[in-house]
Design brief:
Layout lengths: L12 H27 L7 H67 L4 H7 L3 H72 L3 H16 L20 H11 L17 H11 L8 H4 L4 E3 L9 E4 L5 E7 L2 E4 L8 E4 L5 E6 L2
Antiparallel strand pairs: 1-6, 2-3, 2-6, 3-4, 4-5
């Protein structure tokens, strides 16, 4: 029976290897196809997406710039205070030197007198009346000496207090300068990122981007969220009229963050300069200007009012009527007229 059994046939290694290789090749091809699909470039952003991203970066840069403006103003105030404290300390130290010289002269005179007992001096004196007169003078001199000593002590205390204040102000100045550097770096990072985004655009895409900006700047107000009805023009010669006139005169001047004129401006630098021309002093930053005057609603807007935007109150423009304002928009742009509805409303104030 064993002789009639058919020998067991083993699978051919060659054909099995071929099938395995074929399977791996197909899998590899599929994987390669998948990788090729994932390695393909991401779809290019639309003009609207680029504009939204760049606008966000510019807005964040402006927020950092306004913080820089505030820190700069505080640093300048700290510098002035420090100089005043040092000058006052120097003046008091000079007066103190004169008082100490007087006190030293008195001490030297007493030392030279030898400290002789007054009774002995009276007994040895050839003229008792003259001695008694001198004794009265010495007593008065003693009072003057005590007063001089008290003056010197007060002077020393005052100079020491002034020096401590100067030291504290110097530390504050150092902190403000550190803030300046931090906010400046933050603004520059955002601006650099915006430039990188724009640099990736083709010439055609850049043209569309610029066109979309021009449309946004010149289109009429959307009139959402409140009335922007035409307000009467301010009386000729009024402060509001002078502020508006100044803003018109700044049209076309470049936006430069941190600038307050006369050749360039940032947003709050422009409004500050406009109202300064009208004889009204405004603080430096957007978040302080909004509290400089009387708060008003959109329905109360009149030419000359300040209009603020974004939740952090990071942008400001000068209302000119008809739902429009003059403002310094962002780096790379110029002072221009724009609708007030192109940015999120934060509030308005009348600086007089």
């Amino acid at each position: 029976m064993a002789a009639h059994r058919k020998p067991r046939q083993r699978p051919l290694l060659g054909s099995g290897s071929t099938r395995t290789a074929a399977t791996l090749a197909l899998a590899g091809a599929a994987t390669a196809t998948a990788y090729q699909g994932t390695s393909q470039a991401e779809p290019r952003p639309t003009t609207a997406q680029v504009k939204a991203q760049v606008d966000r970066l510019y807005q964040e840069a402006e927020a950092a710039a306004e913080k820089y403006n505030g820190a700069k103003e505080q640093a300048e105030q700290a510098q002035r205070s420090l100089e005043e404290l040092r000058e006052e300390a120097a003046r008091r130290a000079e007066r103190l030197g004169a008082a100490r010289a007087t006190l030293g002269s008195m001490a030297t005179s007493q030392y030279r007198s030898g400290g002789v007992d007054p009774a002995v001096q009276l007994a040895l004196s050839s003229d008792p009346d003259q001695y008694l007169e001198r004794a009265a003078l010495l007593k008065r001199a003693g009072h003057r000496q005590a007063n001089s000593l008290a003056t010197v002590r007060r002077g020393l205390d005052q100079v020491e207090r002034l020096r401590k204040k100067a030291d504290a102000k110097s530390r504050e100045l150092s902190a403000r300068r550190a803030e300046l550097a931090e906010h400046k770096a933050a603004a520059e990072r955002k601006l650099a990122e915006a430039k990188r985004v724009l640099a990736r655009l083709t010439a055609e895409e850049r043209a569309r981007y610029e066109a979309s900006n021009s449309t946004a700047m010149t289109q009429g107000p959307a009139r959402t969220g409140g009335s922007t009805a035409q307000a009467p023009a301010p009386a000729t010669g009024s402060r509001a009229a002078r502020a508006v006139s100044f803003a018109y005169g700044a049209l076309g001047k470049p936006y430069v963050w941190g600038a307050t004129g006369p050749s360039s401006y940032d947003c709050s630098g422009l409004t500050q300069a406009a109202w300064r021309a009208a004889g009204v002093s405004l603080p430096r930053t957007t978040y302080t200007q909004i509290n400089a005057g009387r708060r008003i609603s959109r329905s109360q807007l009149a030419p000359g009012d300040l209009i603020f935007f974004y939740p952090g109150v990071t942008h400001v423009g000068l209302y000119i009527g008809g739902g429009k304002m003059i403002h310094a928009p962002r780096p790379g742009s110029t002072v221009r007229i724009a609708p007030i509805d192109q940015m999120p409303w934060a509030g308005a104030t009348r600086p007089f």
